[in-house]
Amino acid sequence: VTAAYYYDKALENGALTAAGKVPYFSTKNRVDSSGVNELRYQLAESYRLYQNYTMAETLYKQVVEANESDYPLARLWYGLCLRCNNEPSKAVGQLELFISSNKDIKENKRYATIAANELKDCLFAIKQSKIATTAKIVEAKTYTFVARSATPLNVQDISAIMSRMPGNMQGGTINLNENYYEVKVTPDSVIAFLPYYGRSFTAPIGQNEGGVKFNSKKFDYKSTKGRKRGWDIVIDTKDAKENFRLALNIGDEGYATLSLNSNAKQSITYQGYLKENENKQN
Asked: Considering only CA atoms, which of 150, 143, 146, 179 is closest in space to residue 270?
């Protein structure tokens, strides 16, 4: 604690004293930018060893951004502090960078092991968080399915569509990553905005009637636990222009497959993931 206090005062004053003297008493020997970074690093070390990870995180970040090459361990400890401060997703990026940049340095083997263990803990924490969040939003009916790809029932139809795309692409799946399509579920509504590829048995009335678009207030909703993990959910709309059945197979980490059936269209399947509904403030 005493070391942290002295380094903090030295950093505040931007000055150092001769060896053996208390740093913050000096008003001479003003330090340059490299000296300031040294003070930041030593102060961060003191806070980390005292388990004050909040203060240490800020200082390690400043060191990494200023001159990482002089303090290669700063990124490791920055990642550790992020993990301790409940930021595992941010910690993963820092730890992966540290491991990739130090994997060939033998003297850093000990620290590479520490980083690998920290990374393992972070990934586990992220997975557990996803599982908990998925369970919460599915049980509360406050989730949005985000579609990232679509697979029509008729392979010939999809091949014809893909052949007209740039690069003459072939295959059975259409990538939707460049657009945003979703099905939003709440306790009293199901709102869909999805593209459609396949055969439709009725022609759309207007130019904006293509795809799968509806806002249903009357629907049947059935949720059951999956045979192994996750959930199987079936939604039958009662007030849309078409009678839609949406069958969602949801994994415990939030990845999901949506099969859509209609009395006016061929079936189509979407792959994507679940996210929690956003609370829009008026």
From this structure: 150
Range of the domain at 125: 2-132
pLDDT for 51 equals 87
**SS3 at position 236:** strand
Q: Which of 132, 165, 189 is the last residue in one of the domains?
A: 132
131-177 residue pLDDT tens: 999 999 999 999 999 999 998 876 565 566 556 655 544 556 788 87
Looking up tokens 């960078």 gives 97
Identity at 250, one-letter amino acid code = I
Structure tokens at 106: 């033998």
The structure tokens listed for 102 are 């130090």
pTM: 0.66
Would you give the DSSP letter of residue 206? S
Q: Which single residue is written with the structure tokens 């240490």?
A: 56
What is the widest separation between alpha-carbon atoms in the chain? 88
Q: Are residues 94 and 150 in the same domain?
A: no
Q: Which two tokens stand for residue 136?
A: 């919460």
How many whole angstroms separate alpha carbon 139 and alpha carbon 245? Answer: 20
CA torsion through residues 181, 188, 232, 241, sign: negative
